[in-house]
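Why this split exists: single-chain examples teach little about how molecules sit against one another. For that reason, every record in the complexes split bundles all components of an assembly together and asks for one structure covering all of them. Below is a record exactly as it appears in the raw files.
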Amino acid sequence: MTAIAAIASRERRTGGAPAPRAGLYPTPRSPHRPRPWTPYVFLAPFVLIFGTFVLVPAVAGLWMSLHNWDFFLPDRPFVGLQNYVDLFTPDALVAQQFWESMRATGLFVVLSVPLLMAIPLGLALLLNQRFRGRTFFRAVFFAPYVLGVSVVGLLWQYLLNGNTGLINGYLAQLGVTEPVPWLTATPWVWVSLVGVTVWWTMGFNSVVYLAGLQNVDEALYDAAKVDGASRWQQFVHVTIPQLRPVILFVLTMTVLASANMFGQSYLLTGGNPSNETRTAIMLIADVGLEQFRMGLAAAMSYLLALLLIVVSALNFLFLRQKES
Amino acid sequence: MRTTRRQPGTWVRYLLLTLAAAVFAFPFWFMVVGAFQESPTNTPGQLLPTSGWTLGNFAAIDSRIDLLGSLLNSLVFTAGVLLGTVTFGLLAGYAMARLDFRGRGATWVLMLLVQMVPFQLLMIPLYVQITRGFGLGDTYLGMILPFAINTTAVFIFTQFFRALPQEMFEAARIDGASELRIVRSIAVPLVRPALTTVVLVTFIGPWNEFLWPFLITKDATLQPLAVSLANYISNVAQSTANPNGAILAGATTLAFPVVVLFVLFQRYFTASNIGSAVKG
């Protein structure tokens, strides 16, 4: 079974390239073979925009991070690695702020990712069965994803408000007399941020899981049933291995999304209480675009990016190894 | 994981799903009801109001921010991003799926890389580049260009192009059609569902995008609705008679087009379409 999974996922990774397929259908020579430069022309606009708006800023950011780069100052002296050193000097204020924001980011990742992996999978399993109203339920659970973060933040700010919010109103009816400070005190701020994020984005993960589930060969389940496997055993030995590439994809994307969380904190808690929910991106935006210390902000960006690359690579290695 | 009908678990499933769906839909209900109320309250008892309906909230927010103008800006921004995404995505997807060339593997890695680089990490140098380098601050072009390519779109197109039979392309080539002609007259008409999926999936992004247009536009007449709404909340809401109602009316206006599109084209948001992007 694992061999099948390995082959299936390898096929997915490399994709069925058309080249070998062409060999199956020998074609007569024609005057209009695609010219050798045609593919490059077709790819040119994509690559051009990628170069201009991803690659150039990425390099420019690195360059900025090595300077004392202020948007409004004419002098932007080269400072070498000073910006990075500052971020590793324990008693520097920026270092404290930065690592505090990294802690908040890490905490959010650790709290949100397991929920965003598990709940959508459960939902996808439910929705993968045939029953009346399936389309309706799928639509309802996906719906929040179409909202923008501004609308999401706005709505939940009303709903979660400590004094006048509806959530506390309902809790009061249930006999909770003390209003819960959803947006102003730990640990409730984390419950709110994670809960809102799960509500907002889990529909998308469910849809991706559903796609994976629909590609699982029914014959594998039948074979497992013949062998007397229980529902749970089928799940562990058929569903999970078959879904592994999809799980890897969802995990990587979810970790990246959570690590780059900005809007929810910005709009719901404003980073409070005492900057405990100020995420790294929020601090970077503040230092770079409010205080205009862009060199320092760029250095922070690079440290965060480096960490994310390491985490993504670890995810990949870990899940790949299990596969073989 | 097939289930047979009439299992004891059936009603439990419906109960669970219905409860969860109610919780999920609740904020939408709250938003829409509040937008049409004279004084939206937060007391649970008044969630099913029988009186106090008004359209005044929309008039109130329209008097403070140019609702129609902002919607138009959102539309221009979104349309520009879609045009770029579809055109460049189709060309790139066709090359990746149907043409053989050196460096295809490298291109694939490059595209995965684009998907991995979060926009926020580039935003500071990008801001400097667009405003200072290109002088595109306060322009539609400056808003649109950084979003004009979308890897997910390329993946979706590639997947669909791959599924088309090779003979069709060979036949067209024998007839002397150029590759661009083949894309236009054969490939694109055959992948209409992919086109719809890409348009729907990418529509959500720019329509809701807040951070980038917020940074790049200081001129209020150029701001998309997501930005002007946020400005309204932070600046002028205090001076409106019923700020909560007005804010909810603005949020409803912003959410309305996407929700309508989503409901109309729900079947295109299906697992296999979006999932095809994953399996690239």
